[in-house]
# Entry
Amino acid sequence: MIENIFIEPNPSIYRRLTSRPKQDTLVLDSIIKDVYDKVEASGDIALKEFTERFDGCRVEALKVTTEEIEYASALVSEALKRAIKTAKKNIEIFHAAQIVNPISVKISEGVDCMQKSVAIERVGIYIPGGTAPLFSTVLMLAVPAILAGCKEIVLCTPPNRQGAIHPAILWTAQLCGIDNIYKIGGAQAIAAMSLGTESILKVNKVFGPGNQYVTAAKVYAQNYGVAIDMPAGPSELLVYADETCVPRFVAADLLSQAEHGTDSQVILVASNPEIVEGVNREIEAQISGLPRREIATQALLNSNAVVISDKKTSFDFINKYAPEHLIIASENASDYVEMIINAGSVFLGNYCPESAGDYASGTNHTLPTDGWAKSYNGVNVDSFSRKITFQSISKKGIQELGETIITMAENENLQAHANAVKVRLMDLKNELV
# Structure
């Protein structure tokens, strides 16, 4: 159950209530720097050493072979294959709708501006393994990357102690057409994709969720000119529950997120204390049957229940927290939509669990955490492309716009900028003589 309960808290403590579990950043930064330094110096040798140290297995070849993929495919049940195919179709439908046609605008006579999307050529996607092999994340990253037109996709995921990748991850990857798959996880995988090694191609942008080590490694990657999707760390969920919620559903949603990891966090914002009591009773009843109950129990220690009776004040608090996932547990969920400013992905109504977005509704589950939803959005097709602008100016256009450019450039004391226009205007003046 959630033991940290706050009734009508004063806004002065909101900062404490919206904080996430943290690790010593000095220690973390030192570890990440060491990983990067060793991968940069020794390449594949360092990756194999890290894999043996952190994953407990010795791998001879980092790249997954065709034979390994074929063997893994036979281990995936037909029921799971059908489910993955259905999820893939839904994700494709939603993300294909995000593709924007080129824009062309006539600004004035002789001045035309254009914009088009161009895919990032090389992208790396990180797929968490370990206790929860997230084959669903393969879909969430590979589908929009392919729709955007990325030419090369590198996938890294940690092996088990036998040196193998979870069969569902391999089957999903080949379903999406990815064949550059590597047995490497953690911060060392991010370093490999950021630096490049003998086996692994250096990429232009890295995507994917992970623990604090993976997140810190992604942030560090930017020192090497590699972009990242967002600083997405341990998973989190906030549920807003009013008098029309179903406590059993709310408890199930909170536990579904708490089982992700011991550093996950769930928050319940309720309109009255009775809702918290009812949800806590349901948590106690449901958690005992969960295989990952110890993980969920630890995560609940990081979690809070907050009672705020005023709806506007509730959403002021929610927007300050800026949750990765936000569930509106209410029969009147649509009434709250306009009050939501900061959130990664929102789930509306009593019959819309967060796990729907995690797997098969069609939206993306790679989302900003740790309050970054105030400034980042989740992964979409645009995440895998860049916008390039073009402008075309005719003789007539430069004559019409020239004096404006010259005046602005000279007032910024940038005479060469002004001269670039003046020489053209002079040339056109001479043509008329």
